[in-house]
Amino acid sequence: MFILVAVPVPSLDLLTYRVPDHLAPPPVGARVVVPVGSRVMTGVVVERGVSADGRIAGIKPVRQVLDAGAFVSPDVIALARWTAEYYASGVGDTIPALLPPMARGGRADSHKTMRVAAITAAGLEALAVGADPRVGPGGHTGPPLREKQRNALVLIAGVPAGTSTASLAARGVTADMVGRLARQGFVSVRQDRIDRDPLSAPVPGPATVQPGSDPERALTAEQANALGRLLALAGTGEFRVALLHGVTGSGKTEIYVRLAASCLASGRQVLMLVPEIALTPVTAALFREAFGDRVAIQHSGLSDGERHDQWQRIRRGDIDVVVGTRSAVFAPLERVGLIVVDEEHDGSYKQEESPRYNGRDVAIVRAQRAGALVVLGSATPSMESYHRAMTGKYERVVLERRVLDRPLAAVTIVDMREEYAAEGPDVILSRALRDGLERRLARREQALVLLNRRGFATAVFCRQCAGTLDCPNCSVSLVVHGDGAARRARCHYCNYTARVPTVCPLCAGPYLEQAGFGTERVEAELKHAAPGARVARLDRDAIRRKGSLATLLSRFRDGEIDVLVGTQMIAKGHDFPRVTLVGVVSADVGLGLADFRASERTFQLLTQVAGRAGRGDEPGEAIVQTLYPGHYSIQLACRQDYAAFYERELRFRRAMRYPPLVSLVNTVVRSRTFAGAMDDADGLVQSVRRADGRRDDVRVLGPAPAPLGKLRGEYRAQLLIKGSNRRRIREALQAALSARPELRRRVVVDVDPMSVL
Ligand code: ADP
Ligand code: ZN
User: Fold this and answer.
1) pLDDT at position 124 over 70
2) How many domains does the chain have?
3) Can you tell me the distance from the alpha carbon of 635 to that of 637, in angstroms, rounded to the nearest whole number?
4) Segments forming the whole domain that contains residue 523
5) CA–CA gap between residue 464 and residue 476 (Å, rounded)
6) Which of 112, 531, 588, 633 is the most buried (most CB within 10 A)?
7) Which residues, judged by CB distance below 6 Å to any ligand atom, belong to the binding site of ligand 1?
8) How far is the CA of 211 from the centre of ligand 1 (A)?
9) What is the mean pLDDT of residues 204-211?
10) Could you say which ligand is closest to the alpha carbon of residue 289?
11) Is 367 found in the same domain as 241?
12) Are the C-beta atoms of residues 218 and 337 closer than 8 Å to each other?
C-alpha cells in the first residue's frame, strides 16, 4: 500500500511511501518513521491507499510504524491540510505544528510514564523499629536495616509518595538501592503517568486574581440578553458565528464561562482562545474555578514537557476545556461544541512565519466542520469581522454598557504642538498628564502610560552631515537602549548591536545627537516627574526572562507598582480595578506606517488602552497626547465611537481596494541584491498575470521595494495581489510559483496579511 506522509520540513509537500508487507498499514493520523534524503524522520500519515502514478521504483518504504491508531485525529489532520492549502504553505510546515513537541522525535511514549517509588507500611515499620530489631517492639522478624538502607528509606519517607526514581537517584538513592528496598517490601515501585500541570506551578497572576466569574452573581440585563441569544445559537447544534461586540469592561468573560457551562452540560467541549500568553493563566484560572481540573492550557510559553503532558491529557479525553493561544486551535479535542476567540481583532492570532495562519479564521473553519458555535469577542472588532456581521454572515450580539453602569473613561486629547509652543520642544509628558498622575498618586490610585515604541531614543543623527546611525543589515535606524555608560544602539529587526559612537562615522564631526524617544525614556521622565512613585516598565525588553511578564503584571495588580509604562502589551485585556488614569504618549506612533491597517490598529490600541481605566469603583480618565489631534482614528477612539470609525475606515478601504472589500495576498521576494529582488518579483508579476489569463479579476500591484526594503541583509521586493476571489488569486500565484521552483525558498506568501510592511 502507498501512503502520503507529512514530514517536518519547511515548504515540502506531502511525500509518498510504500508500506512493506511485514508492517501493518498505519491509519491516517499515525506517526511513521521514514527516510527523507539522507535522513530519517518522524512524519504523520495524511492519506492512505494513494496511487503511485507508476513511479513505484523510486518510492521508498516506511521504516517503522509508531502508532497502531491515529496519534493525531483525522479531523485535525484535515484542518491542517485546509490551513496549508489556504495559506499556501507546505503541509510539512503545518502538520508538525499540531504535534506536541516531543512527539516530533517519535519518543512521545517514553515520556508518558516513569518509575515512581513510595515507602510502604512495612518500610515505615522498619524505620520505627530502628537499626537494631532487638531493641524494637517484638514481632518484626526481618533482617536489620543497614546504615545505607536506613538512610535511603528515611529519604524516601521524607519525599512525596510518587517521587520518580530518577529524582531519587539525583538525591543519592540509586536505582539499585531502590530495587533492593523494593524486594524487601519496604518501598513500592510502579510505572506512573506524570503530568506536569502548568496550572499547579506557582504562576504569579491567577493566585492573586479576584475571581472574575461568579456563578451566584446576577448578570446585568444586557449580559443576560446577550447570553440568551448565544445560548439559542448554541442550542441549534449547528455551525454559527457570533460577533460579541462589547465595550471594554462590559463583562464578556462572564458570558464565555456561562456559555461554556451549557456546552459542557450538553456533552461537548470548549476551546477558548486568547491572544497573549500573558492572558492564559488568568483566563485558565477562571475556567478552573468553574470547571475544576478538566481544564488544560496550551501555548508556546510552556516547557516542552508541560505542553506534551497537556496535549496527551486532551487526547486521552481527560479534558473538556482548552485555554490557549493561536496554536491551541489544533488541540486534539474530539467533540468541540464551542470556540471562543477573545479579542478576535488582535494581530497575535496571525502567525508571522509559515504557515501564516490566523487562529481566528482557522477556528471558524474548525467550528464549521464540527458543527459548533464560534463566539468572536471584542470591543474593537476587526474590519473583517464587523463587515461580515453587518452583511449578515455573522450574528451580531452587542454589549453597549459596562457592568454596574460604570462609565467609560473620559478622554482628553492634548495637542502636542500647543504643548511644545508653551513648554519647549523637548517636553514628553504634557502638563495635563503630569497633573493627572500627581492626583492619582496622592489618592493611591494607579496609572498606565502607553507608548508603543521601545528604547530610550529612536535615532542617532549627525548635526553636521545629517547622517543617521543605521543598521548595516536592515533599512532602519538603530534604536538607543539604556542611558549613560550602559548605552547601546540596537536594531529591532535583526538585533545587531553597536556602541553609540561619539563622533559621526560618516563625517567624523563631533555633533551626534539622539532624537525621538521610547518607553525607556518615558520611564525615566516619569521617575523624574514623580520622585516618590514606584514606576515600572513593561515591554519586550523588560520581559526577556521567563516569568518576568507574569511577575510584573501581578506586582501591578497587587499595588506594588503605581505607574506602569509600556508598549501595546499593557493595553491587552487586563482587568486592573485600581487603574483610574491612562496616559498615551504619542498616540500617532503607528499612523506613519505605510500599512493599510495603520488607522485600524491605532483606533483599536487607543480604545483598548483607554478601556483599562475605570474598571473598578472609581471612574477612569484617559489623556491622549498627539501631533494629529484631528485624525479620525484618534478622534473617534477618544469618543469610543466604533460604528463611526467603521464607516469612515470602510470608505478608505473601498476607495483603495483593500480588505475586507477585496481579498489580499502579500508576496515578498528576497534576494542578496536589490536588482535581483526586483527582477524576480517582476518575473513573478508577469507569471501571475499570465496564469490568471487576463480575467481582470486578479489585480497585481508591483513589483515595488517593500516598505522594509532590506531585512537581515536581504533586499525585499513586494507584489500585492488583490481580487474578489481568493481561490483564483491562490491558483494564479501557485501556477506562477510552480513555473519558478527556484524562487520557492526566497518567496514569502502571506494570505490575508495583518501587515504589508
Ligand atoms: P470585558 O472582557 O468585557 O472587558 P470583563 O469580563 O473583564 O470585561 O469584566 C469586567 C469586570 O466586571 C470584571 O472585574 C468582572 O469580574 C466584572 N463583572 C462582570 N460581570 C459582572 C456582573 N454581572 N456584575 C458585577 N460585576 C461583573
Ligand atoms: Zn538590522
Assistant:
1) no
2) 6
3) 6
4) 410-455+518-652
5) 20
6) 633
7) 212, 217, 219-220, 223, 246, 248-254, 403-404, 575, 615
8) 10
9) 39
10) 1
11) yes
12) no
